[in-house]
Amino acid sequence: MRLPSQPEIKADLDFGAIRNVLVVDDSRLQRRILVASLKKWGFTVIEADSGEEALELCRQGLPDLVLSDWVMPGMGGLEFCRAFRELEKDAYTYFILLTSKSEKQEVARGLDAGADDFLIKPLEADELRARISAGARILGMQRELSEKNRLIEKALSELRVAHDLIDKDLRQARHIQESLVPELTREFGRSRVSLLLKPCGHIGGDLVGMFSPGPNRIGFYSIDVSGHGITSAMMTARLGGYLTSQHFDQNVAMEKRFNKFYALLPPEQVAETLNARLMADTGIEEYFTMVYAIVDLRYGHVKMVQAGHPHPLLIRADGAMQFMGDGGLPIGLIDGATFRQTDFYMQPGDRLLLYSDGFTECRVAGGGLLDEDGLCRLAGECLAQHNGPEFLDDMFWRLTQSMPPGETMDDDVSAVFFEFNGN
């Protein structure tokens, strides 16, 4: 080994990430020469005369750099390198194998074993320093990357905790939102109202509901608040309070008469009241579409207001289908907006379907949207087998099955199904 003493070499050279060096060689003389130069350059040096001893030392603590002879009795440099790599955990050590010229063709084997670099004996001081400097740069980049990964992992862990808390809050918010629809089906004499509410996320911006202030009088509605997520859900909670089925004195669709009973107000008046309340609230940019209908069960007389919501589907007892309503403005867009009432009569066996655009604007396999024709086809298929809440469940299931493979709902889906069977 040729590492002549060089006075011009300073002991305070900066080798960055490399501080501790392990020298492994069965030749005591060669170790002495190599160790002398390394210490002169400022390294802390550990010596071992065999691969077995070196491996035991490494179990006690990993060095920054290993300089190991290739050919040694017992465990050679190649076997030691393989065993050493199995010891490593978080920190990485730069490994240089020392080899003779006759072993140059074995470089590929050394790389496979985990070596990072090779030096040909006899060693030159300048080349050794250059190789160590190159290893120090690589170790520095690796440790910098490890630190960044540690910081990223820490940030991800903190984000996971925050996500779990948000997820917990959203699940609770969903329970609260579900409480706005306390019953999904209810019979009114021989007639029945069924509800469907399927948010595309934890919470949604759709709302359905029904209420009855007395015999033969029912009201039901389908609402779709603009946007998605928490803001829309908060709006549905507010609207649920305006149209509550449990506290008639707070329901804007009713008024108390003669201090004895509650009466249903005309649908267009309800829409105008809701519009006025929404426009009076500064800072609220959301609006909503709605169909609100009241029914006199004695005569099948339906009074309905449509405020930008999809046209309700009237399904006659003989299977004929007709879309009802005149459109109208969404609620909360224009101050002082007026709304027009639609009147029609239902006969026993007729059914009325209110639905959100989550149905008609759902993407289906083959391209395009379900649209109104697809809705009629879907309703016809489901009515052939089901009625009441089972009809709505089947509608939703068939809708999901019609979507392109792998896709999920990107909008809330809701519906109200009214079955009129006379008084």
TrEMBL record:
For this protein, what is any one GO molecular function term? phosphatase activity
Which residues are recorded as modified (4-aspartylphosphate)? 69
Origin superkingdom: Bacteria
Q: Where is the Response regulatory domain?
A: 20-136
What InterPro entries does the database record attribute to this sequence? Bact_Sigma-Reg, CheY-like_superfamily, PPM-type-like_dom_sf, PPM-type_phosphatase-like_dom, Sig_transdc_resp-reg_receiver
GO biological process terms, alphabetically, are: phosphorelay signal transduction system
Q: Which terms are listed as keywords in the entry?
A: Hydrolase, Phosphoprotein
Query: Pfam families from the xrefs?
Result: Response_reg, SpoIIE
Stated name of the protein: Sigma-B regulation protein RsbU (Phosphoserine phosphatase)
Q: Which organism is it from?
A: Ruegeria intermedia
